[in-house]
Specification:
Three copies of one chain form a homotrimer. Chain A has three helices and eight strands. Chain A is an alpha+beta fold. In chain A, a hairpin with a 2-residue loop joins strand 5 and strand 6. At the B-C interface, helix 3 and strand 8 of B face strand 4, helix 2 and strand 5 of C.
Chain lengths: ~130, ~130, ~130
């Protein structure tokens, strides 16, 4: 298992981690397999989406905040229930294939760490099968 | 493949299954790998979220019922369309890593079976790679 | 890694791909393992849900369009932000177990390719561990 940190900059932040996962594949000399990316937090997640145009990320953030409002008569006293709900909707893990030593991603795909209750320093775990 | 039952208590119920997955890891002497947890139902799901404060689970349930209302002019005659939609949003599977014989979860993370159309007796499948 | 095409028929389309995954299991003589199904697109996804009654799929489409409206003051100029958001909510991958040469799915489960910005010809990747 390989682990790296992600420093998030705001309450709701999507940060590209594709290069860190590519580094793992290279450092470990993985030529073929399926990688699992896992986020060990309950107010964060991992997703794959467009990495080219930053307006896509802005729209994802805006719309998720509309669907799951920050304040909505939640009972959890810490005030971060919306972050927990987003975490379950987006999900704590992703699988990515490796072929011929390269991560298999579509042309527009990038891997994003999703911070829903930052800013904080977070962890990501990566492991291959 | 390992299988266990979950008895759910109400229409919408989140039930902690972390201990059952830990038991699988122990019984099978798994020291290292990636576990897949799979729910073979179309009106249920599996998620990872906070296991310490039960108010988080209450907020997840309340908010999901607001986002996907129980009645909303659905065409499916069985009356459980909201449960099917929640199932696809949360997802039928999760991946969890095992290192040194232990399930790798964050401090606050627990694994939950999500019942969206109970109460029923449900099945969960677990398998390691 | 195995790859196949899916031809989608409309902007928002859910297409059953269970048989194509079963064909992969048969062609590759897979008797035991965990299969990853991966969609290399940022405006599509993969989900597991009811395959018997097509009204379930209709309700999933209707409700997702209500939750994530097609037009909602998005900033991404291409006009397909709703598709990107749906893609992250449903997810780019699924895991399915294989036992005794058969895909392990519940009685009502089918695997669906989710097109959110069609019609197009799309790709699906399948790999076993």
């Amino acid at each position: 298992m390989y682990s790296f940190n992600v420093k998030t900059g705001s309450r709701f932040d999507l940060i590209k981690i594709t290069d860190k996962i590519k580094k793992f594949v290279k450092d470990e000399n993985i030529t073929d397999g399926i990688i699992t990316v896992f986020v060990p937090h309950t107010t964060a997640a991992v997703t794959i989406n467009e990495g080219a145009d930053p307006s896509v990320v802005e729209d994802i953030k805006k719309e998720l905040d509309e669907i799951i409002p920050l304040h909505d008569n939640y009972s959890h006293m810490e005030g971060n229930s919306a972050a927990h709900i987003k975490s379950s909707l987006i999900g704590a893990s992703e699988n990515i294939m490796v072929e011929n030593g390269s991560l298999v991603l579509g042309t527009w795909q990038a891997v994003f760490f999703c911070e829903f209750d930052g800013p904080r320093t977070r962890k990501v775990y990566v492991k291959v099968n």
